[in-house]
Amino acid sequence: MARRSAGLVLIAFFVFPSMVLGFTEFIVGGNDGWKAGVVDYSAWASGYTFSAGDVLVFNYWDTTEYNVVVATGSDTFDKCVSTPNLGFYDTGHDVLTLTDAGNYYFFCDEHCEYGEMKFMITVS
User: Fold this and answer.
1) pTM for the full model?
2) Hey, is 96 helix, strand or coil?
3) Strand order in the sheet with 102-107
4) 3-class secondary-structure state, position 68
5) How far apart are the C-alpha atoms of 110 and 68, rounded to whole Å?
6) Peptide bond into 17 cis (omega under 30)
7) How many whole angstroms separate alpha carbon 111 and alpha carbon 59?
8) Interatomic CA distance for residues 73 and 85, integer angstroms
9) Distance between CA 53 and CA 24 in Å, rounded?
10) What tens-digit pLDDT sequence spans the chain (124 residues)?
């Protein structure tokens, strides 16, 4: 019986890691992903509560047109300044862990100046 329980725990860990480890995984933009002109990302983010340890997943298909910049603060975010930054990602499937409480600022370097593909969240 103990062997069966241990096996079920391992299956749960690999199939539902967020439930076992206590974090939530958010797919930025939901089914539409990280794409210009499709999602109001500020509105998307306002519908959720984020906690330290949660994970944001940015999915996009064109790595030459899209990327994810983690801005150093509100000033660089507001001005769409990509350097310096806290992170620059362009894999098409970027998984970012929200490690600490505070404000986080995200944008796409190519689309930020048009007011698209940028949002800020507060992590508790």
Assistant:
1) 0.82
2) strand
3) 85-89, 68-71, 102-107, 118-123
4) strand
5) 10
6) no
7) 16
8) 9
9) 8
10) 555 544 434 343 444 444 445 789 999 999 999 999 999 999 999 999 999 999 999 999 999 999 999 999 999 999 999 999 999 999 999 999 999 999 999 999 999 999 999 999 999 9
